[in-house]
Amino acid sequence: MQDVVAWLTAHGNLKIIDEPLDVELEIPHVAYIEVKKPDSRPLLFTQPINRAKGITYEMPVLMNIFANKSLTEEIFGKHPDAVAEGIEELLKLKPPKALIDKIKMIPKLFSLKNVFPKRLKFRGECQEVIIPKAEVDLDRLPILKTWEEDGGAFITMGQVYTQSLDGSMQNLGMYRLQQYDKNRLGMHWQIHKDASHFFDQYQRAGKKMPISVAIGGDPLYIWCGQAPMPHGMFEMLLYGFVRNQNAQLVKSITNEIYIPRDVDIVIEGFVDPTLTEIEGPFGDHTGYYTLKEPFPVMEVETITMKKSPVFAATVVGKPPLEDKYMGWATERVFLPMLKPMAPDLIDYNMPENGVFHNLIMAKMKTLYKGHAMQFMHAFWGVGQMSFVKHALFVGEDAPKLEESEALTEHILDRLSPERVFITKGIVDHLDHSSSEQFVGGKLGVDATGDEIAEGVAVPLEDSKLFEKVHKCYRDVVALKQYFSQTKNPLCVIMVEKQESMANLMDKLAPLHAHIKVAIIVERANNELDNPYMLLWRVVNNIDASRDVRLSPYIMVDATNKGALDGFSREWPGDTFCTKSVLDDLQAKGLIDIEEAFVKKFGLLPFE
Ligand SMILES: Cc1cc2nc3c(=O)[nH]c(=O)nc-3n(C[C@H](O)[C@H](O)[C@H](O)COP(=O)(O)O)c2cc1C
Q1: Helices and strands (DSSP H and E) totals, the chain
Q2: How remote is the CA of residue 177 from the centroid of ligand 1, in Å?
Q3: Are 550 and 522 in contact (CB under 8 A)?
Q4: I need a labelling partner for 111 at 20 to 30 A (CA). Which of 326, 357, 511, 525 fits?
């Protein structure tokens, strides 16, 4: 990471902050604000401290390594599309027929030898310093507490290396780790993830599970940790493929797990499968807190590190965040891997304000009736794509998927209740909207067809429509229509929620001459003029199997759910910055934000 810091200083516009700043809230808040700027920069905090614990840390904290698209591309050493092209070529590899084809194939096959990680026999730079068990103290690491209501401090960019019980499979996953005390960490591997599957094997066998958590090194390790590789494929293969250079691994000191030789810090230990501890709450990348839940606990055996390590960390919360750029690269690289199951897929896009799994837009060539539905099922059935809640499919004639305004118009001109398809499936571990954890509604829109014939029969201006809606239902406080030029304007209705929105939907039904799509949101912490955050809120908050009506027109209840709705799970709160911390950072000139910025990204609760 020292090399990365030098490289970022020379090429990546690194901002160095020498002011002593607290790992609790201050450093995370500065990084959170920075990554939301259009020209965001990586940040190095050279003097992290913890005032409450009276600690001055010996190592700096590096954040926003994936601060923007161009930096992400630099980390890859090529555009992620170029990686995708290489993967596509590999997937299409056919046995050569003529001698000339054989000769042409040699360089490709030769480069494949670089894909496989190399296991070295000697110790790595990451093992220059070895801290024995008796001296292990996680307080030596500048572990961040991002949000006021977080259950504690969390390692947010830990590369978690694990292996299957029989040692035949190795895995790298990026999972957050809660620091409980000097030598114990909470392992937040979610139920659908590979390390959790390995854990099940150890649990069944009644054996302790070895784990090595690495921090730092080549930033591409970090990206590989979050890449949704198929189960059983070690992410370091992808590393070797992208770098065209084998990952060089060394054995951990106290277990058989191999980690990259050049990471900055390695925390080795094991999980006793009979023990769990409450993990969280934690302000997550959904922009909501994930609630307390029991997770396995890692007991640390040793910590090894380089002589001058750098501590890599990220901050998650409401979009846009660093995962926007990591996610962009993932989306590009994994396109060819989706094609074998959806061969007529042209492209897909997961906007960051849909927090990735909450919204996907896909472009395809349709060859037969139901083709888009077939692809929706394929997506909902495979790997981490199955977490997707809302899938909108368009045909070849649609605008580019990144042209969000034009694409939305295209979809709305093709939308009708008959083209909306609702089913159920598994949902992301973090999803808070489904009535039951892990299983919830899925909504697909087949907008691959022609424009629909009829738009709104009697369109009304916002003020006139508000009068009508308010007459039907007194708790409506405001209304705004988006995309009125299309066949299906989006009518966003803001309410002061006093009861289940089923009643509002019943009362709105007679207004079908004026409304074709109604989306209900609450007044608290929403702004009708902020479509970016409205989209974020709506796709987060709905479970289509419960919250969407298709008759007499499309109605969506995107309010928070609770006892009024017969919803028995706890509904989590938004991640908000701490005002006093923002004020302090602003006074010190460490951030420079205006009221409009605070509102735009929902940094503070609305008054
Ligand atoms: C910043 C960040 C934090 C993440 N935190 C977690 C986490 O705490 N738990 C988890 O299961 N997945 C987390 N993920 C997602 C996983 O890294 C991702 O699903 C990865 O593909 C899992 O690898 P696996 O399939 O090998 O288990 C996180 C991703 C990012 C970008």
Answers
A1: 17, 31
A2: 11
A3: no
A4: 326
Strands 360-364 and 345-349, how do they pair?
antiparallel
pLDDT of residue 18: 97
How far apart, in whole angstroms, are the C-alpha atoms of residue 157 and residue 62? 11
Residue nearest to atom 23 of ligand 1 (CA): 173
Residues with CB under 6 A from ligand 1: 171, 173-176, 188-190, 193-195, 225-228, 314, 316, 323, 326, 384
Which CATH superfamily does the domain covering 462-565 fall into?
UbiD C-terminal domain-like (3.40.1670.10)
Tokens found for residue 16: 């160095």
Question: 488: exposed, middle or buried (C-beta count within 10 Å: 0-12, 13-18, 19+)?
Answer: buried
pLDDT tens by residue, 40-81: 999 999 999 999 999 999 999 999 999 999 999 999 999 999
Taking 90 as the threshold, does the pLDDT of residue 428 lie above it?
yes
Q: Give the containing element (helix H, strand E) for 82.
A: helix 80-91
Burial of 314 (0-12, 13-18, 19+ CB in 10 A): buried
CA dihedral 252, 257, 259, 264 (to 10 degrees): -40
Write down the pLDDT at residue 102: 74
DSSP string of 98-157? SHHHHHHHHHHHHHHTTTSPEE-SS--GGGSEEE-GGG--GGGS--BB-STTSSSEEESS
Quote the pLDDT of residue 148. 97
Q: Read off the pLDDT of residues 438-483 as tens digits, 9 standing for 90 and up.
A: 999 999 999 999 999 999 999 999 999 999 999 999 999 999 999 9
- H helical segments located in 478-594: 501-508, 531-541, 544-547, 579-587
Contact status, residue 352 vs residue 327, Cβ threshold 8 Å: yes
Q: Which amino acid is at 531?
A: P
pLDDT score for 207: 98
Which residues is 440 bridged to in the sheet?
Answer: 425
3-class secondary structure, 38:
coil
Which two three-digit tokens encode residue 421?
């398809």
Place domain 2-79+106-313 in its CATH homologous superfamily. Answer: Electron Transport, Fmn-binding Protein; Chain A (2.30.110.10)
Strand partners, 163: 170
CATH code for the domain defined by 340-447 = 3.40.1670.10
Question: Does the fold of domain 340-447 match that of domain 2-79+106-313?
Answer: no
In the structure encoding, which two tokens stand for residue 100, read together? 């000339």
Pocket test for ligand 1, best of 35, 164, 175, 428 (most atoms within 8 A of CB): 175
Q: Which two tokens stand for residue 325?
A: 């750029």
Q: For the chain, give every domain's residue range.
A: 2-79+106-313, 340-447, 462-565
Question: Is it the case that residue 161 has pLDDT exceeding 80?
Answer: yes
How many whole angstroms separate alpha carbon 236 and alpha carbon 224? 7
Q: Measure the CA dihedral 534/535/539/541, to 10°.
A: -10
For a pocket test of ligand 1, which of 159, 161, 169, 174 has the largest count of ligand atoms closer than 8 A to its C-beta? 174
pTM: 0.96
Mean pLDDT of the region 187-215: 98
- DSSP classification of residue 473: -
In this prediction, residue 95 carries a pLDDT of 72
What is the Cα–Cα distance from 87 to 153, expressed in whole angstroms? 38
Q: Which ligand 1 atom minimizes the distance to the CA of 157? A: 1
